[in-house]
């Protein structure tokens, strides 16, 4: 499944200093993958682990904490606050745009 | 999940859950309530009067960028009658502040506001790069904080403004409340929730975003596509604040009202007169004329330490005594130009013309 991922608020620094990434991930959790029930459709929690394993270059503790994004990181699903979409349990669809923005940098 | 409609207009698709209220609202209602709440904060605290010259402390980061945009918007919408300026302090941190100042320069164009940049190098003769290469990464935030506070006042004085507004948001204030409790700094605890502070001869400073959640500021910047800079300072961050911040974010995740609740707790503390009395009385610095609680202001003290090669000595009272024991300051010592607060022109309006 194709997804568009965007990082902002300084998070892009952990991901090759690149804001936008077009990625392809499995549409169901692969056999033997510990980040979900194998065979189930993938959700944002799966994506967060996938990003950590495949795209994140440094300091994973600034992105992921207790199995989900670190508190203080805002997540938008197709430009809507993920809190309205079921947060980590949101089931991803083809061509979804997921934005991660850190709020933790000075202003 | 079916898209939810906005709790306010019942019409458009909700795009955000407000941390303060839990309401799910659409983009247009979000812009409106965010701006209106800042307007209410400003009017209830009577922060400005028509004709005021107001400097926005601008770092290029999210808070001050949103503040500049919202101040411009409200000033036009509600006819505050303010002259707005951008005021930036260049600490001299290569790879950090130089980049963020580029953002402020773009903001100057985008918002059509005059910009004043004052550098530590110009004012103190030291950049933070040079301070850190001299003293290392321990205590450098002390230097930077003391220098910035005074630089903002001096920059504001040179613009002849009546007022400085800063982008401190609700999360910042809640963090400061927690830090003051954890440090037992009760005198500061009593002051840190004030929306507006003013000493006798200092320029008023206030925080129009006192009740604005960081989440909403970042969402506002995102949906308005505002141009801001976000990188951590390359020198060691304030570790203590970092812990308070992480703790607060954990609390917020469990209960979003935690931030506003902590501010209310801070406001409700009543500081006993005995505690308040331990604060030293304010005077002016004998060397540079800036407000001070000792003969020398903190910036002059720190600068003298740097100039005399005893940089860390000036951080504590004990260190200061050691420095004084070394003899008086040499005559050719680099000092800060004498501070003259802006001459406030009070125009008495004759009764007849009112």
TrEMBL record, chain A:
Subcellular localization: Cytoplasm
Entry PTM: C-terminal thiocarboxylation occurs in 2 steps, it is first acyl-adenylated (-COAMP) via the hesA/moeB/thiF part of UBA4, then thiocarboxylated (-COSH) via the rhodanese domain of UBA4.
Functional pathway: tRNA modification; 5-methoxycarbonylmethyl-2-thiouridine-tRNA biosynthesis
Record GO biological process: protein urmylation; tRNA thio-modification; tRNA wobble uridine modification
UniProt keyword terms in alphabetical order: Cytoplasm, Isopeptide bond, tRNA processing, Ubl conjugation pathway
Primary role: Acts as a sulfur carrier required for 2-thiolation of mcm(5)S(2)U at tRNA wobble positions of cytosolic tRNA(Lys), tRNA(Glu) and tRNA(Gln). Serves as sulfur donor in tRNA 2-thiolation reaction by being thiocarboxylated (-COSH) at its C-terminus by the MOCS3 homolog UBA4. The sulfur is then transferred to tRNA to form 2-thiolation of mcm(5)S(2)U. Prior mcm(5) tRNA modification by the elongator complex is required for 2-thiolation. Also acts as a ubiquitin-like protein (UBL) that is covalently conjugated via an isopeptide bond to lysine residues of target proteins such as AHP1.
PANTHER family: RURM1 PROTEIN
Sequence similarity: Belongs to the URM1 family.
Protein name, as recorded: Ubiquitin-related modifier 1
Source organism: Russula ochroleuca
Gene: URM1
TrEMBL record, chain B:
Protein residues bound to ATP: 57-59, 63, 89, 167, 172
Principal place of residence: cytoplasm
Domain Cytoplasmic tRNA 2-thiolation protein 1 C-terminal: 283-312
Subcellular location: Cytoplasm
MF terms (GO), sorted A to Z: ATP binding; nucleotidyltransferase activity; tRNA binding
TM ranges: none
The enzyme's E.C. designation: 2.7.7.-
Keyword Protease among UniProt keywords: no
Record keywords, A-Z: ATP-binding, Cytoplasm, Nucleotide-binding, RNA-binding, Transferase, tRNA processing, tRNA-binding
Summary of the function given for this chain in its UniProt record: Plays a central role in 2-thiolation of mcm(5)S(2)U at tRNA wobble positions of tRNA(Lys), tRNA(Glu) and tRNA(Gln). Directly binds tRNAs and probably acts by catalyzing adenylation of tRNAs, an intermediate required for 2-thiolation. It is unclear whether it acts as a sulfurtransferase that transfers sulfur from thiocarboxylated URM1 onto the uridine of tRNAs at wobble position. Prior mcm(5) tRNA modification by the elongator complex is required for 2-thiolation. May also be involved in protein urmylation.
Family: Belongs to the TtcA family. CTU1/NCS6/ATPBD3 subfamily.
Protein name per UniProt: Cytoplasmic tRNA 2-thiolation protein 1
Organism: Russula ochroleuca
Gene: NCS6
């Amino acid at each position: 499944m194709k997804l568009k991922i965007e990082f902002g608020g300084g998070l892009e620094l952990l991901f090759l200093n690149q804001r936008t990434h077009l990625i392809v991930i499995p549409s169901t959790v692969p056999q033997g993958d510990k980040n979900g029930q194998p065979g189930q459709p993938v959700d944002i929690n799966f994506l967060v682990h996938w990003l950590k394993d495949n795209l994140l270059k440094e300091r994973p503790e600034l992105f992921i904490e207790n199995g989900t994004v670190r508190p203080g990181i805002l997540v938008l699903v197709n430009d809507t606050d993920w809190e309205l979409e079921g947060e980590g349990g949101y089931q991803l669809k083809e061509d979804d745009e997921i934005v991660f923005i850190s709020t933790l940098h000075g202003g | 999940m079916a898209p939810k409609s906005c709790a306010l207009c019942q019409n458009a698709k909700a795009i955000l859950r407000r941390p303060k209220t839990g309401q799910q609202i659409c983009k247009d209602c979000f812009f409106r309530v965010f701006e209106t709440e800042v307007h209410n904060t400003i009017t209830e605290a009577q922060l400005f009067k028509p004709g005021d010259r107001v400097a926005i402390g601008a770092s290029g980061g999210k808070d001050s960028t949103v503040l500049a945009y919202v101040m411009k918007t409200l000033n036009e919408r509600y006819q505050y009658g303010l002259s707005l300026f951008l005021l930036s302090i260049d600490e001299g941190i290569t790879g950090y502040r130089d980049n963020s100042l580029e953002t402020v320069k773009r903001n100057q164009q985008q918002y059509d506001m005059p910009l004043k940049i004052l550098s530590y190098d110009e004012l103190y003769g030291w950049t933070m790069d040079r301070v850190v290469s001299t003293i290392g990464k321990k205590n450098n935030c002390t230097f930077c904080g003391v220098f910035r506070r005074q630089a903002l006042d001096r920059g504001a004085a040179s613009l002849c403004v009546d007022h400085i507004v800063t982008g401190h948001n609700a999360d910042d204030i809640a963090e400061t409340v927690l830090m003051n409790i954890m440090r037992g700094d009760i005198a500061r605890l009593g002051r840190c929730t004030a929306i507006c502070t003013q000493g006798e001869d200092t320029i008023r400073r206030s925080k129009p975003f006192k009740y604005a959640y960081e989440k909403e500021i970042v969402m506002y910047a995102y949906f308005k596509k505002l141009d801001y800079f976000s990188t951590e300072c390359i020198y060691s961050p304030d570790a203590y604040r970092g812990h308070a911040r992480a703790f607060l974010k954990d609390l917020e995740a469990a209960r979003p009202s935690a931030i506003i609740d902590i501010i209310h707790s801070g406001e409700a503390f009543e500081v006993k007169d005995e505690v308040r009395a331990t604060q030293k009385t304010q005077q002016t610095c004998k060397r540079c004329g800036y407000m001070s609680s000792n003969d020398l202001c903190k910036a002059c003290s720190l600068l003298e330490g740097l100039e005399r090669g005893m940089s860390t000595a000036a951080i504590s009272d004990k260190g200061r005594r050691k420095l004084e024991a070394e003899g008086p300051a040499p005559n050719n010592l680099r000092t800060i130009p004498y501070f003259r607060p802006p001459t406030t022109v009070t125009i008495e309006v004759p009764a007849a013309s009112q």
